[in-house]
Amino acid sequence: MESQGKPLAGRSAVITGANQGLGRAIAEHFVRAGASVLITARGEELLKQTAEELTPLATLAKQRVLTRTADVSLSEHCHATIEQARAELPNPCVLVNNAGVYGPFGLIEENDWSEWVRAIEINLFGTILMCRAFLPHMRSANYGKIINLSGGGATAPLPRISAYAASKAAVVRFTETLAEECRGTGIDVNAIAPGALNTRLMDDLIAAGSEKVGATFHEKMVKQQKQGGTPLERGAELTAFLASAASDGITGRLLSAVWDDWANLPSKVNELTASDIYTLRRITPDDRGGWKKCA
Asked: Which residues are the active-site residues?
């Protein structure tokens, strides 16, 4: 089959947490765009089912869909995943860190501490460990694309979901920092906010109830679920863009799949590089015209 209209043809990606929800949508979008993929998750049966559904979509020569049951919070699992990608996939140059959990709901002093720590291990440490495992290969190839999944927890307080909020904010600052470490190497590192998604995570949040997550936020999520939420395809499209050659040079940014004009960023790479647009930063009184205007 011809690769025309397949912007990821000839590229391979490792996608974590890809057996359901957004991760699965990203994997499907990548395969349709011509990429080979190695999808990972902790749930083996659902992972196998996902691979069986995606394989018929791989229509290009040498295009593959592979799986690996793995826990991103374990360093040995991360290294084994990357070794498999290097051994069995053509041109493995893309890493999508999608695996994540909400963690415990409720006031921080009432949270089960082991659950709180576990959320950090998966959301933050899992992202870092996968990057650590893949980066030596990317550096030797002088090219790579790392896309880290963030979310609303990175840009606004999320009372009663503190592990998620803290881990996702940390993922963004890690993304910005790693982008600087990789500047000039051909490796682009970005984070994305996919929007409010109707996935298992939202189901978990709503099931926790208003006493755990707060009445206002719970009501907002129930309404969001009834309205359908942000289509998974929006986040998948942005992820595919950041995995493609079209985004070369765009790095160290947190991009919203819903609100940002990311498709037109290639024409503004120089302006973007010289600015702090789409980054985390501290707001000072001068940024708001002084204290009088802040009041």
From this structure: 164
